[in-house]
Amino acid sequence: MRKISKLHFITTSAALAEQACRGGVDWIQLRLKNVSYEEYRKVALEVQDVCKRYNATLIINDLPRLALDINADGVHLGKEDIMTPEEEAALLAGGHIIGCTTNTLEDILHFKNKPVSYLGLGPFRHTTTKQNLSPILGLGGYKNIMESLRTSSQKLPPVIAIGGIILYDIPSLFETGIHGIALSGAIGNASDISAKAAEFTKLVNDPTASNDPWGNSDAQTRDIIAGGIGEIIGNITFN
Ligand SMILES: Cc1ncc(COP(=O)(O)OP(=O)(O)O)c(N)n1
Ligand SMILES: Cc1nc(C(=O)O)sc1CCOP(=O)(O)O
Ligand SMILES: [Mg+2]
C-alpha cells in the first residue's frame, strides 16, 4: 500500500489537481457532490490521468464502487457513506486504501483492529466546503484527543486533520501528533494554486516548523501570518 501522505488535497477537477501536483502535492482526493455516477466517473478518469503523470495517490470520496471500477488507489468514507461487504472485500484484496471520517476519541477507538488506512479527524474550524459539519474541535480538541491516544498506546491508523485549515495552523496542528492534514479551500481558492501547494508541501514536510510554531525566522513567521490572514479573508463569503 502507498505511504499515507502528510498533505491531502481535496478537489473537484483535473485542472485543479494538476496545478496542485505541479506544486508538489502527491495525494489527491476527488470529492464531487450531486453528480451522476457517469459524471463522477468521467472526472475521476481525468484526475486519475493527472495522478498517474505525477505519481500521486488518487482517493475517491464517497463511492467504493467507483474506486473499484477505475482502480483508484482508495476511497474515503464518512459515517453516512455505504460500503457493501463485497466492496470492502474487493478493496482490501486489491490493497486499496480505505480512509474514514471521525470527530471524537470514541470514533477513533472504534477503528481499533479495523482494516482502515487513515482517519480524517475534523472539523478543525468552521468551513463552507462541507455542509452539516460535526462539532468543531479547534486546536484544544486535537490536543486532548491526540494526548488520549498517546496514553492509551493503542495501535490505530494515522490521523489526518481536516476542516478550514490554513498554512498558519500547520506547526501547532502537527505538534499535537497528527500524521497529516487534508484541505480544499486553502489551496483550491488561492490565486496561484501551484505556489500555494508548494508552500503547504514544504511546511508539512519541514520537521522543525512542525515541531516549533515560532521556530521560523522572523521573515518566515511574518509571511505565514500574512498568508493566514489572506486565506481567512479569502474564505469569507459576502451575501
Ligand atoms: C480526509 C478526509 N476526512 C474527512 C472527510 C469527510 O468525509 P465525509 O464525512 O464522508 O464527508 P464528505 O466529504 O463526503 O462531505 C473527507 N472527505 N476526507
Ligand atoms: C470534506 C471535509 N470534511 C470535514 C470533516 O470535518 O469531516 S471538513 C471538510 C472540508 C475540508 O475543506 P476545507 O479545507 O476547504 O475546509
Ligand atoms: Mg462522504
From TrEMBL:
<feature type="binding site">
    <location>
        <position position="101"/>
    </location>
    <ligand>
        <name>4-amino-2-methyl-5-(diphosphooxymethyl)pyrimidine</name>
    </ligand>
</feature>
<keyword id="KW-0808">Transferase</keyword>
<feature type="binding site">
    <location>
        <position position="130"/>
    </location>
    <ligand>
        <name>4-amino-2-methyl-5-(diphosphooxymethyl)pyrimidine</name>
    </ligand>
</feature>
<keyword id="KW-0460">Magnesium</keyword>
<dbReference type="Pfam" id="PF02581">
    <property type="entry name" value="TMP-TENI"/>
</dbReference>
<keyword id="KW-0784">Thiamine biosynthesis</keyword>
<keyword id="KW-0479">Metal-binding</keyword>
<feature type="binding site">
    <location>
        <begin position="29"/>
        <end position="33"/>
    </location>
    <ligand>
        <name>4-amino-2-methyl-5-(diphosphooxymethyl)pyrimidine</name>
    </ligand>
</feature>
<feature type="binding site">
    <location>
        <position position="61"/>
    </location>
    <ligand>
        <name>4-amino-2-methyl-5-(diphosphooxymethyl)pyrimidine</name>
    </ligand>
</feature>
<comment type="similarity">
    <text>Belongs to the thiamine-phosphate synthase family.</text>
</comment>
<feature type="binding site">
    <location>
        <begin position="127"/>
        <end position="129"/>
    </location>
    <ligand>
        <name>2-[(2R,5Z)-2-carboxy-4-methylthiazol-5(2H)-ylidene]ethyl phosphate</name>
    </ligand>
</feature>
<feature type="binding site">
    <location>
        <position position="81"/>
    </location>
    <ligand>
        <name>Mg(2+)</name>
    </ligand>
</feature>
<feature type="binding site">
    <location>
        <position position="62"/>
    </location>
    <ligand>
        <name>Mg(2+)</name>
    </ligand>
</feature>
<dbReference type="InterPro" id="IPR013785">
    <property type="entry name" value="Aldolase_TIM"/>
</dbReference>
<protein>
    <recommendedName>
        <fullName>Thiamine-phosphate synthase</fullName>
        <ecNumber>2.5.1.3</ecNumber>
    </recommendedName>
</protein>
<dbReference type="InterPro" id="IPR034291">
    <property type="entry name" value="TMP_synthase"/>
</dbReference>
<feature type="domain" description="Thiamine phosphate synthase/TenI">
    <location>
        <begin position="12"/>
        <end position="187"/>
    </location>
</feature>
<comment type="pathway">
    <text>Cofactor biosynthesis; thiamine diphosphate biosynthesis; thiamine phosphate from 4-amino-2-methyl-5-diphosphomethylpyrimidine and 4-methyl-5-(2-phosphoethyl)-thiazole: step 1/1.</text>
</comment>
<comment type="function">
    <text>Condenses 4-methyl-5-(beta-hydroxyethyl)thiazole monophosphate (THZ-P) and 2-methyl-4-amino-5-hydroxymethyl pyrimidine pyrophosphate (HMP-PP) to form thiamine monophosphate (TMP).</text>
</comment>
<dbReference type="InterPro" id="IPR036206">
    <property type="entry name" value="ThiamineP_synth_sf"/>
</dbReference>
<dbReference type="InterPro" id="IPR022998">
    <property type="entry name" value="ThiamineP_synth_TenI"/>
</dbReference>
<feature type="binding site">
    <location>
        <position position="164"/>
    </location>
    <ligand>
        <name>2-[(2R,5Z)-2-carboxy-4-methylthiazol-5(2H)-ylidene]ethyl phosphate</name>
    </ligand>
</feature>
